[in-house]
Amino acid sequence: MFNFSYKTQRYLILFGFLTIPVLLSLTFSYYPAVSLFYYSLTDWTGLGWDMHFIGLDNYKEIFTKPEVFGVLKNNAYYFIGGLVQVALALYFAVILNGRLRGKNGFRAALFLPYVLHSVATVIMFKNVYHGEYGSLNMLLGAIGLESWQQSWLGNKHLVNISLAFISMWKFMGLNMVVFIGALQSIPSDLYEAASIDGASGWQKFRYITLPSIRSVMELMLILTLTGALEAFDIPYVMLLGANGTSTFVIQTVNTAFKYQNFGLASAMAVVLLLMVLLFIVIQRKLLFRGEK
């Protein structure tokens, strides 16, 4: 039995608590990131370890092929849908944070879609969007809007909107719960003082609620942006990226596993990481430059 002094025990505990997270980060974050960048400089096919260093050739190929970045227009649908989703989540959070009978039931109902697995969600919406027996077309027919019935996944002008709606429906509940937590942290005295001064509901929301949840809004917008750039599971499971629904991540996955060009796919992943960081910096500079 070792008899260490209090100071020694303190240093050992601190060393242990710091070492384990650092080792986990090095093993599962930094080493894979460095390996990814190295693979992007090679012609690795993903089979075995036979690879040759080709420098920046993969990056040159990415920036000389317009179709690589052309799919980002499909990611834009998810970003716009994400902005609508954040607005709706904040709207429901404000309503369900007040004195509303049965609000816990409404919270659970809106949060439930987030609990569902993405694959199950996509399979469910396949039955919603089906051109013949889909519930959406049946609903339109029942209310006399037969002219609106169509193949929601076959129309190139509507398919990405339909897929973005699935993402919005799934993740709105999570954003709502986060907003409710932020709203509950605002002191009620501020609202009481504003009511005494004769402030309206909109004035309370504009001058008390929004400034108080500014950091949460920033987080939500960052998650919306990164989620839009990394959109994959919904369009891939629904259509495998066909009919003009391919996203940047789907194209990266196809490059790696379909065409067995892991070097080029690694370079695309690095470019995606840089795009995410760049857009986050731009977003903070433009939207939150006045925050200190």
UniProtKB/TrEMBL annotation:
CDD domains: TM_PBP2. Residues 71-283 form the ABC transmembrane type-1 domain. It is a multi-pass membrane protein. The keyword Transmembrane applies. This is Sugar ABC transporter permease. Signal peptide: none annotated. GO terms for biological process: transmembrane transport. Belongs to the binding-protein-dependent transport system permease family. InterPro entries: ABC_transporter_permease, MetI-like, MetI-like_sf. It is found in: Cell membrane. Keywords: Cell membrane, Membrane, Transmembrane, Transmembrane helix, Transport. GO terms for cellular component: plasma membrane. The chain crosses the membrane at residues 12-31, 76-96, 108-129, 161-183, 219-242, 262-282.
